[in-house]
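REVIEWER CHECKLIST
Item 1: Sequence provided? yes
Item 2: Single chain? yes
Item 3: Sequence as submitted:
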Amino acid sequence: MTASADRPLRLLYVFRAPVGGLFRNVYDVIKAMVARGHEVGIFCDSTTGGERGNRLLEELRPILKLGIHRQPMHRNPHPTDISALMKIRALVAEHKVDVVHGHGAKGGLYARAAGVLTPNSGPIRCYTPHGGSLNFYPGSLAHKAFMLIERALVRGTDLFLFESQFIADRYYEFVCVPKRPTRIALNGLYEHEFDAVQPNPDATDFLYVGEFREAKGIDTLVEALFLLANEGLHPSITMVGSGPSEERIRALIAERGLDGQFRWRGVTPAAEAFRLGRIMVVPSRFESLPYIVLEAVAGKLPLITTDVGGIPEIVTRDYRYLLPPNIPQRLANVMKDAFGRPFPDLQADATVLSDKIKSHFTVPVMVETILSGYRAAIAERRA
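Item 4: Structure as written out by the authors:
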């Protein structure tokens, strides 16, 4: 690292899967960093991402002076971790990288492992957890094992950048309160994402957008609709996304006799998906600071959501449609209330909520927080 405190930096972003909110965060940060004159590279998994993830990576390729480097990366420990660590070490040396920024548990491991052996040397090593290992069934043997690894990696970390206060508190509870520089860099949105969503003329009454897996609580949503059906209410709903639990969810819907109320759509960009329903439902059991909730609130889409993770950092706990997870009757009651209200009234409430978050969750604020963190860690290293 040269002496100039404000010179352009060479940044290497390390993460596993180019999908979901984590990739959205990295993608936006990278574009902003390049626009500010920094040189950037990516190291990520070659087996995940799908058509959309691969397309977005290719969109970035022309502006990434340090390149895109991909190889198989497994969620759990695997022999390929050794070759990945060697590759990152070679990239750091070849490009004289200033900051290696790991996102998620696997990215954080790869970015910081070398620093455990030689702390306070080489590039600044930064970590942004996204909730996976921290939220993995606290108290279980697997969670305890993950937390042991996290504690070992603290020694190799120069900077912690949390994407929500919830994740920061989770880290403090299960790992430690770091002595190194720490920042809360809230997920950010662009100005145009605060434009009001207008549902399509054939939009369904409700909408779910996200992964189909256990943590998302879709079974609670199905059971709530079953309770409403027993009251003679049969609202329609569009399900947008994909995931490992889809077959089980479809079987539950069929078992409850609700097939006729459901429409299905594969993975779809949020701006397009939001037009497919009038009220979005997020029945999650676990979350960190979900982009899908942030985007829905920004777009003034009426929202029903559970009080989990960092969601109360987006919608306050006095919000009318914030409720505990895993209680189908509570969800059914809230859906019935929203279903019975005129859409303009719902959207007026959603507009108030959108206006409250507009100054806090922006890409420029997020990027400036991250960049100031890099500079602070570099300054501390020099001192």
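Item 5: Key structural point noted by reviewer: Residues 69 and 76 are 20 Å apart (CA to CA).
Item 6: Recommendation: ____
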